[in-house]
Amino acid sequence: MKHITCIEDLRLLHKRRVPKAFFDYADRGSYAEETLRANREDLQKIKFRQRILVDVSKRDLSTTILGEPSSMPLILAPVGLLGMQHGDGEIHACRAAQAAGIPFTQSTMSICSIEDIAGSVEKPFWFQLYVMKDRGFIKALVERAIAAKCTALCLTVDLQVIGQRHQDIKNGMSVPPEWTLSKLFDFAIRPGWVQGVLQGKRRTFGNIAGHVKNTEDLTKLSAWTAAQFDTSLNWKDVDWIRSIWPGKLIIKGIHDIEDAKLAVETGAQALVVSNHGGRQLDGAPSSIHVLPGIADAVGDKIEIMFDGGIRSGQDVMRALALGAKSCMLGRAYAYGLGAGGQAGVAKAIDIIRNELLTTMGLCGVNTVAEIDRKVLAD
Ligand SMILES: Cc1cc2nc3c(=O)[nH]c(=O)nc-3n(C[C@H](O)[C@H](O)[C@H](O)COP(=O)(O)O)c2cc1C
Ligand SMILES: CC(C)CC(=O)C(=O)O
Description:
With 378 residues, this protein is α/β, with parallel strands linked by helices. It contains 16 helices and 10 strands.
């Protein structure tokens, strides 16, 4: 990892080490990928004010997230199928987050189960929930998150209809999964990855296997899961989740001021301004484009988290300047995981941490609380 200096280096290493179908699943977006590109392009358009001769010798990244101390304003976002980027990927990512002193969010669509992670890490983590049609299953899943002592529930609300990812279809990441000679060859030339995944605790959705009959049958499990996304989901379901989850609630996938106001009314502690990393509504504006309006409208009533296109500490600084209290990393750490397991995720976090510290120094800022629109050039 010595010559890895930026997230793009981790991305290229991930691309080399992991079969194409799984790399593309992580890397790509929905439809024409306009929103995926806009997330990056709009962040890069935001320029900083360079300030000089300010004593920046005592820069400090520490902050609070949902009232808890955090070493920096970063969170590992829920990312599905991490265990396919690296054997036991969820455990590796959670360990790296905990070693760095930041929260890890486990996806409903994880390969390791809630219990697998809880039994393998030192501290509590967050759980992300997709509300599926089978509400009995969802209630049981929330109860499992409570039993595992998860400290926050991140309710994702932007995937009741699934945006098509063309590349996943071309790669046979469909239901049922497609096995072609070229795919088998692609696996065969990556024996390190194959061995890691085979040594992992599980090779299918760990939170769901066990609930579906014949779970050994991957096709049945995938079909059940795909059919379970619930197009009827609405704000009443959020109230129901509120009634069965006693802890801190985060609503993830807010992209509109009116929805942000409704999220405040649910009594949730935080919302995530997110377009699911350009994987859902293609043609939506970038997350950074909508952040200032949402922060101005509700930032004094609810904690604002942000994601979408964060690949550097500079990007974190941009989002904090425009009203976010913390940022979720998605692909940035998934690339690290594919590139090198726990060490790769640790590297991703460290790269972003150092970039943020340097950017703060060059903008004449010492603390996270000081970062506001004044650090941006007109
Ligand atoms: C491969 C992949 C899988 C994802 N799976 C989930 C998921 O299971 N649940 C969820 O709430 N968000 C999921 N997301 C969205 C992320 O939580 C986050 O919103 C997004 O990655 C942020 O954009 P970025 O990747 O540009 O940082 C996924 C994102 C990626 C890249
Ligand atoms: C299994 C997927 C629905 C997980 C997800 O949220 C994503 O791929 O963006």
